[in-house]
Amino acid sequence: MAELQVQYIDPQELKPFADNPRHHSERNIQDIQRSIKKFGFTNPILVRQEDNMVVAGHGRLQSAQELGLEEVPVIYLDFSENDAKLYAITDNRTAETSEWDLVALDELVQSLEMDEDELPDTGFYADELEEILAEIDSTSAPQGEEQAEVARQTLAQRFLVPPFSVLDARQGYWQERKRAWMGLIGDSGETREGKLSNLSSMSAMFRPDMNTVSVLDPVLAELVVRWFGIEGGTAFDCFAGDTVFGYVSSYLGQQFTGIELRAEQAGANSQRIAEFEQSSYICDDGQNVAQHLAAESQDLFFSCPPYFDLEVYSDLPNDASNQESYQDFLSIIDTALAGAMDCLKPNRFAVVVLGGVRGRDGFYLGLVDDIKRVLARQGAGLYNDLVLIDPLGTAPARASRYMRNRKVVKAHQNVLVFYKGDPSQISTNYPELEYEIGDLESELVD
User: What is this structure's pTM?
Assistant: First the structure.
């Protein structure tokens, strides 16, 4: 076999194979150019000796020409015209028929010391890589529903629940963990009974669980702390409401501060978290949060603010839930969240749970989008947009009545995850998540 030798020539002297069956997209050329800029021209172009026709390396040639390179490495081959055509086909086809070892790919990517914005240097973009690696947990499982269950269990072992944009609180594993938490917390919302809006309010008429007092889901609270909090860090809420987040975050080692307007609720919450000396509730207006916490002192902001007048909590004039107009309500929310963002450290997460509510004319008021705009003005960008699917409860019984007016029963809440700072710092400030399911279960045992 003849020894192959690399020569350097002007890329303008090379002729592309006119009948090349493989074409390069603009994205592909950009990827090749990025690789050349970062690593150099490491893969020579294969060229037919007789006429300088490119046999393999058309993408590299086009990239070099567009980059204005004066010379490129080539290897000359003594191929007949027929062999050159044959090789042009087989070179492209053999690359296509190889397969990724997904586990090895995952481990290799995880071992790279780089920020997410450097990921395209691998030839992948974040969304593409996530889609490919999502297959890892199911490649060795049986097909169909059993395969999906194995994949779910594997993800749950690593992240508590599968980290998808849809969180399904109807699932048995979720409900089992919720019961364990509620047994520890003991908050059924008794200080808020009778606070739901009068049925004349269109907002209340279209709340799926309007006949019950709403209490934060403790499993959701746990996810927020584990996924977006700092271990052993600080957390706060300027619209504290029930005890759930304060208890869960404190139980998981956070120093929690809750601001609650109603004295009765603040007192009950303080009693329930009395065992956690590091945490406290303060009875005050959430708009005054910056008077109680130092600027840029907190690691995690969480809140489930009032859904306008869906649940009216008190007759206090500064209670956001009993404002005469939606704009008055939003003004209070705006002031409180602005103060909260001043208290949040840079490069930290803020999580807001809320749902859309209807005005008296039956149209949605745009609460979710308004909260996004409020936080954006304070320098917190929307980073994850999650949906929490609620257990249906009495929703099926009400569906027929609602459909008389072509309105559907709302059975989800929005979980908006914001980030204040530079997202490229997330991997530096937040370690990788991976839990042992046995350890997680033992944490909820008295």
Answer: 0.64
Q: Please report, for the chain, how many H helices and E strands are present, in that order.
A: 16, 12
The answer to whether the CB of 213 falls within 8 A of the CB of 312 is no
Q: Kindly report the number of other CB atoms within 10 A of residue 122's CB atom.
A: 16
Write down the domain spans for the chain: 6-96, 102-155, 165-442
Q: Which neighbouring-strand residues pair with 258? A: 237, 281
Tokens of 104: 């090895």
Please give the helix or strand (H or E) that residue 369 lies within, else none.
Answer: helix 367-377
Query: How far is residue 344 from each of residues 298, 302, 350, 364, 378, measured CA to CA in Å?
Result: 5, 11, 8, 30, 11
Q: Cα(360)–Cα(162) distance, rounded to whole angstroms?
A: 38
Q: How many CA atoms lie within 13 A of 95 on its CB side?
A: 8
Pick the more confident residue, 120 or 84: 84
Contact 57, 14 (CB under 8 A): no
**149: Cβ contacts below 8 Å, ≥ 6 apart:** none
- Categorize the per-residue pLDDT at 405 as very low, low, confident or very high, splitting at 50, 70 and 90: confident
**Torsion over CA of 281, 287, 293 and 297, rounded to 10 degrees?**
120
Domain 165-442 has CATH 2.40.160.20: no
Q: Domain 6-96 maps to which CATH number in 3.90.550.10, 3.40.109.10, 3.90.1530.10, 3.40.50.1400? A: 3.90.1530.10
Q: In the numeric block, which tokens belong to residue 282?
A: 């303060």
Confidence band for 285, pLDDT divided at 50, 70 and 90? very high
- Using CB atoms within 10 A of its CB, is residue 419 exposed (0-12), middle (13-18) or buried (19+)? buried
Cα 356 from Cα 368, distance rounded (Å): 6
